[in-house]
Amino acid sequence: MRRFPSGTFGRQRLQFFPAPFKSPLKPFAVLVFAWQADKVVICDIEDRGWCIPSGRVEAGESPCEAAIRESREEAGVELDRVQHIGCYQITERSEVRWADCFAAKVCSIGEIGNKQESLDMKLVSIDELPDIYHLWNPLIEAIFRYSGEVVERLKDSRCS
Fold this sequence. Notes:
Layout: E1 7-9, E2 12-18, E3 29-36, E4 39-45, E5 49-51, E6 54-56, H1 63-75, E7 77-92, E8 95-109, E9 118-125, H2 129-132, H3 138-153
Parallel strand pairs: 3-8
Antiparallel strand pairs: 1-2, 2-7, 3-4, 3-6, 4-5, 4-9, 7-8
C-alpha cells in the first residue's frame, strides 16, 4: 500500500489511507478532487479561501452522493467516473472522525449551485496550488498528485 505523510490542520492531526481502505465509521464529510485534463477544480469558500469541493454527508445520503452534490453546489460541475480514492482520519484530542475522498472527471461546468457557500471556482494546474490553496503541505500535495494519477487511469469516460 502506498504511504502518505501525516499533516495537521490547526489542532487536528490528519492521516490519509488510500483505497481500498474503508473507514471503520461512517464518514462525516467528503472531499472531491475533480479533474478536467491536467487541471483540478478549486472553489473560493468564504472564511477558508481556495480549496476543493467538500462538505458534510447528509442524513440518508451516501458519501458518493454527497461528493456529487457538493461538487454541484460549490463548483457548478457535473462529474463522471467518481472514484473512492481513500479517506482521512482526523484526530483532535481523543476524538477521531473520518472523511472520504473521491476523484472524478469533470463532464461539464455550469453555475455554482450555492453562492452562499462558494464565491467562485476555477480550474488550476497542480503547480499553481502551493500559492493559492488554503492549506498546503506535503500531505495535501501527495493526495492531489495521487488523485490526478487515479483519474488519469480512468478509461472509457463519456467526458473529454
